[in-house]
Amino acid sequence: MCGHFLFPSLERVSLKGKVFPWECVVSEHRKAGLQSFFIESEMPKSKKKKAAPRRFVVRKSGVHGRGVFALVDIPKRTRLIEYLGERMSHEEADERYGDLHDGSSHTMLFAANDEVVIDATQWGSSARWINHSCAPNCEAIEEDGRVYIETRRNIRAGEELGYDYELIVEERHTAKLKREHACRCGAKRCRGTLLGKKR
Q: How far is CA 71 from CA 58, 66, 117, 146, 153, in A?
């Protein structure tokens, strides 16, 4: 009698106290009148999917607070991560944070479009730690109300990731307002502020 004995969750088979490797046993057991054959499985070994190597890490930044740094070389036009957080309307964001963010450049709110604001203050992806840069190596791409961070150019391992925040403030861009939203990116052509052009 011969047959295939398939034990998907086992790598070794035990019979009468003897342990046989599942992959390569072709043996006959005749004790106590028993006759059993174990033959190599024709099914390929299950291959564990290797986790993709981490491409970036969050750590202390010389620009501001925490930052995100490349761990490996990353090609141009690579989609890195989605900016995640609580989704709300602009009205809800103003009501929740209007007074709190008045005169402060610290914000984890991302206006995905004219209807949706993504609030990463309480929870979100590592994208919330990417700092502003006036010479950005990344950019924010909006698709159907969702925001993704993509590389604008080839990035070397060790570089800090950054994109242009282009903060929109409807009031007049006075020197005081620019100071309140000062940029410390250190780029050669740093414009000195996180504020973008008024719409």
A: 10, 15, 30, 25, 16
Could you write out the DSSP letters of every residue in 141-160?
EEETTEEEEEESS-B-TTPB
Distances (CA, A) of 68 to 122, 144, 165: 18, 25, 15
What pLDDT does residue 22 have? 34
Q: Are strands 117-119 and 109-111 parallel, antiparallel or unpaired?
A: antiparallel
Give 173's pLDDT tier (boundaries 50, 70, 90): confident
Distance CA 75, CA 109 (A): 28
DSSP β-bridge partners for residue 193 = 182
Q: Which residue matches tokens 């009698």?
A: 1
DSSP 31: G
Q: Which domains does the chain have, with CATH numbers?
A: 7-42 (no CATH), 56-180 (2.170.270.10)
What is the rounded CA–CA span in Å between residue 27 and residue 35?
10
The Cα–Cα gap between 133 and 108 comes to 16
> What's this model's pTM, rounded to 2 decimal places?
0.68
